[in-house]
Each structure stands twice: as structure tokens, then as C-alpha cells.
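REQUEST FORM: STRUCTURE PREDICTION
Request ID: SP-0412
Submitted by: Lab K.M.
Chain count: 1
Length (residues): 195
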Amino acid sequence: MSLLAFYTTSLKKHPRITNSLTTGFLFGTGDVLAQFISPGDDYDYKRTLRAAFYGSVVFAFIGDKWYKILSKIKFPGQPLANPRLNMIRNGITKTSIDQLGFAPLGIPLYYSIMTLLENKKFEEVQIKLKENWLPTLKVNWMIWPIFQIFNLSIIPVQHQLMAVNILSIFWNSYLSLRNAKKGEDLPVHSPPVPE
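STATUS: Completed
RESULT:
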């Protein structure tokens, strides 16, 4: 049995568990890759576990629901005579909704949860969002729209999250590197000095 056949069978029998395990594994893989390409740092297995946890517990379920919602969206208006053009037009419509609706909310969700999982305070979440949200969103818009048009036009809905997760290995590496910026890149808040 091929890996894709095994995945498809597992997805049919146990969709939530399969999505959770594969998404967590791929988020963790992205973090491992990020740590290996980041010079001079020791490997932090807790960071990988946080990434895998986020992928398994948060993103797998949100992503699954989101792709099911997107699968029902069609371009408003009359269908075209050419079914392929309809697929592409619907894919562009879904991608627009995904990139203008989900991405601007999903990015701060990632940074917020990862910062809280690092046992940091809410003020640090705000700092991380202020520094990372817009730059990450801009990079997101350079990468994801072309892929999502293809994914949401051609890939069957049950495999769309997996397709996203495969590209996400590299995207998650980027997010992990950005999330783990060193202290010198962040504002330093010193405790007050007693007089």
C-alpha cells in the first residue's frame, strides 16, 4: 500500500486523528528544519514539541473546518461553459477569501499561541504581534496565493489540508525562525533600578 493510499484510508476511517497527527508532524518537521538552518543554536526539543502541539491541537482542527467551508464557496454568477475555467474561477474566489480572511487572522493566532506556550506574558504577545504580523503577512502573500489557486481549484477537498501542510514544512520553518528571533531583535524592558 502506498503512503498516499494509507493516508487516504486513514483519513476516511479516522479523519480528525489523521489530520491531527499529520499536521502536528509537519509543523514539528518545519521547526526541526528551522533549528538546523539557524546557525549557532543548540537544538531545543521543547520548541519542536510546541510547534507539533500547535499543529496537532490548534491548526489541524481549524484548518480542516476552514477547508470544508471553502469547498462550498463558488464564484458568484452564472457558471461558464468550460468546467476547467469554472474550477479556476472558483479557486481564485476561494483563494481571495482565504488570503484576505483567514491569513490575517491565522498569523496572529500562531504568534499568540506560540508565545503563550513559551510561558510568556500577554505584553510579550503584543510585542511579538506588533513586530511580526505585517512582515509575515507580506511574505505570506508572496507565497500562498499561487499555490492556493492550484490547491483550491484542483486538489480534492479531503487532501487540501495535506497539500497545504506539505508546503507548510517550509512555511513553518519561516514562522519558527521569525518566532524565535533573538532578544537583541526585540525591545528590552529592564526592571526598574531601586534608588
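NOTES: The radius of gyration is 19 Å.
Reviewed by: T.R.
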